[in-house]
Amino acid sequence: MSSEKTLVIFVAIFIVMTVLFLYSSNNGIGGTYAPFHVASNHALLTTNLKKWAGKDGYVPVYGNKSMALHCQNCALVTSSSHVLGSRAGEEIDRTECVIRMNDAPTLGYETDVGNRTSLRVVAHSSVFRVVRRPTEFFHRTDTNPVIIFWGPPNKIGKDAKGTLYRLIQRVSMTYSNVSCFSIAPSKMRKFDSLFHRETGRDRQKSHSWLSTGWFTMVIAIEICDNIKVYGMVPPNHCVKKPVSKKTPYHYYKPRGADECVTYLQNESGRRGNHHRFITEKQVFARWAKQYNVTFTHPKW
Ligand SMILES: *[C@@H]1O[C@H](CO)[C@@H](O)[C@H](O)[C@H]1NC(C)=O
Ligand SMILES: *[C@@H]1O[C@H](CO)[C@@H](O)[C@H](O)[C@H]1NC(C)=O
Ligand SMILES: *[C@@H]1O[C@H](CO)[C@@H](O)[C@H](O)[C@H]1NC(C)=O
Ligand SMILES: *[C@@H]1O[C@H](CO)[C@@H](O)[C@H](O)[C@H]1NC(C)=O
Ligand SMILES: *[C@@H]1O[C@H](CO)[C@@H](O)[C@H](O)[C@H]1NC(C)=O
């Protein structure tokens, strides 16, 4: 083999290796932060979330109820440990409607998160944790609270005859004060297309899972004129500064996963499905200007 040919082969190998290296590091294999959504200014179609819904999107799990909740002022209490030490409990409880997520407790955390619940948005994956502790989630609430369950139609839809649906049905019968709804399949698809329109990414093709935070924010905008969000960080929070102090992802799991680690790993995850917590917050920041949404603890 001539030395020229050898050189060509070496150069080719070098280029291939370089490309592979760059590809894999961009892919988050090395734990590098790769933003899922490159912030862009291209005009995205805006959806009027106030009219977006249609009440038929929420199917009563038991009985003949309709989702009629409407509030002038809402406190949306996140599950982030940023609420710890806020002493916002009394202010939250003074708000007309208090919105919580999944199995976030109030018992033992009243000073920071308050003790009322008007609406709870629960993921299919949290159903067991919620129905297991009815005194916490079905008694310690407002007199006529609402619970909205979201999930794939084959798990929580009206036609799903699985364990999960039967569980939800049983608790709705037992606690008839609580109005339980599941999100209709047609509305679940709307949540997907909303994500597509707002981020320019197809949820399934981009291997993304919507978070309970996404559902809760959209529902809150739908039913509340003004929203104050407790404990949500701005989209650039974990990127901007190297995070030194550990901030648990959930206020009720002090030894659980770190919030920024969870956000960054999910955001850059490519294999398997991941939550796009940071991308979602970029969208929330846009919505905040359009609808009256304010953020406190931290304030932004
Ligand atoms: C269910 O509610 C609607 C309106 O609230 C009412 O028109 C209808 O008669 C009710 N059906 C039953 C079976 O109670
Ligand atoms: C919680 O509930 C009790 C009884 O309804 C009330 O007195 C108290 O002020 C509430 N708020 C907090 C922050 O504990
Ligand atoms: C259910 O509703 C009734 C009447 O609105 C109320 O008196 C009762 O305390 C409620 N029960 C619970 C567990 O909230
Ligand atoms: C926006 O919401 C905040 C609290 O949620 C409220 O204090 C303020 O008056 C609202 N502004 C408008 C213009 O409605
Ligand atoms: C993504 O977020 C979920 C919480 O919703 C968490 O359980 C999971 O560990 C995160 N994944 C990574 C790779 O950090």
From TrEMBL:
Pfam family, one: Glyco_transf_29
Disulphide connectivity of cysteines: C74-C224
One Gene Ontology biological process: cell-cell recognition
UniProt organism field: Monopterus albus (Swamp eel)
Spans through the membrane: 7-24
Keywords: Disulfide bond, Glycoprotein, Glycosyltransferase, Golgi apparatus, Lipid metabolism, Membrane, Sialic acid, Signal-anchor, Transferase, Transmembrane, Transmembrane helix
Coiled coil segments of this chain: none
Catalytic activity annotation: a ganglioside GT1b (d18:1(4E)) + CMP-N-acetyl-beta-neuraminate = a ganglioside GQ1balpha (d18:1(4E)) + CMP + H(+); a ganglioside GD1a (d18:1(4E)) + CMP-N-acetyl-beta-neuraminate = a ganglioside GT1aalpha (d18:1(4E)) + CMP + H(+); N-acetyl-alpha-neuraminosyl-(2->3)-beta-D-galactosyl-(1->3)-N-acetyl-beta-D-glucosaminyl-(1->3)-beta-D-galactosyl-(1->4)-beta-D-glucosyl-(1<->1')-N-acyl-sphing-4-enine + CMP-N-acetyl-beta-neuraminate = N-acetyl-alpha-neuraminosyl-(2->3)-beta-D-galactosyl-(1->3)-[N-acetyl-alpha-neuraminosyl-(2->6)]-N-acetyl-beta-D-glucosaminyl-(1->3)-beta-D-galactosyl-(1->4)-beta-D-glucosyl-(1<->1')-N-acyl-sphing-4-enine + CMP + H(+); a ganglioside GM1b (d18:1(4E)) + CMP-N-acetyl-beta-neuraminate = a ganglioside GD1alpha (d18:1(4E)) + CMP + H(+)
Keyword Cell inner membrane tagged: no
GO cellular component, one term: Golgi membrane
Lipid bilayer topology: Single-pass type II membrane protein
Family designation: Belongs to the glycosyltransferase 29 family.
Location in or out of the cell: Golgi apparatus membrane
Listed InterPro entries: Glyco_trans_29, GT29-like_sf
Protein known as: Alpha-N-acetylgalactosaminide alpha-2,6-sialyltransferase 6
GO MF annotation terms: alpha-N-acetylgalactosaminide alpha-2,6-sialyltransferase activity
Superkingdom of source: Eukaryota
UniProt keyword Disulfide bond present: yes
